[in-house]
Amino acid sequence: MAVKKQLVIKDPRAIRALAHPARQVVIDELYNGKVLTATECAELAGLTPSAMSYHLRALERWGILERADASADGRERPWRAPARSLKVESHSDATGRVAGQAMIRTAMDRILQQFVDLDGDDPWDGASSLSTSRLWLTQDEALRFGKELIELVDRYKKGRSAASHPAGARQISSLIAVVPSGERPQGS
Questions:
Q1: More confident residue, 6 or 78
Q2: Whole-angstrom Cα distance, residue 27 to residue 30?
């Protein structure tokens, strides 16, 4: 079965399904090329296998995850991502915005915790960074800027997964946010 390049989630209920921290841990692993059983997902998320199965089925209902082919012994069917990447479009209405904000909050909390957990003696500490900037862009420039950032991440992601990456590579988390702020320009 061919894997789609990108799965786009627009339904506020599907976006809300993404907001649970345990679900995001599993989604991150599966969308990075892993195929995992419910038991393996439970271990990653710190849940019981039965609780994790509930979460996996909820994500399956929205098409966010799917079952992979059965394991060699046929006892357990693993889970996988139906696409190489997941995009959330939550700007459709108020319900979509609230669902998107819940998902964003969970993702940002996970990234913040990674900064907190980073050991100061880790030689990779110098590779960690956080940058905030204020840019004055037109709407077209802001759209292009966001697209180019995603393309940059995709360039480094291409052909790399937990199972296949260059020697010496380490998993790196990134968070890209492009958010309009301040007053709207007149006439828009």
A1: 78
A2: 5
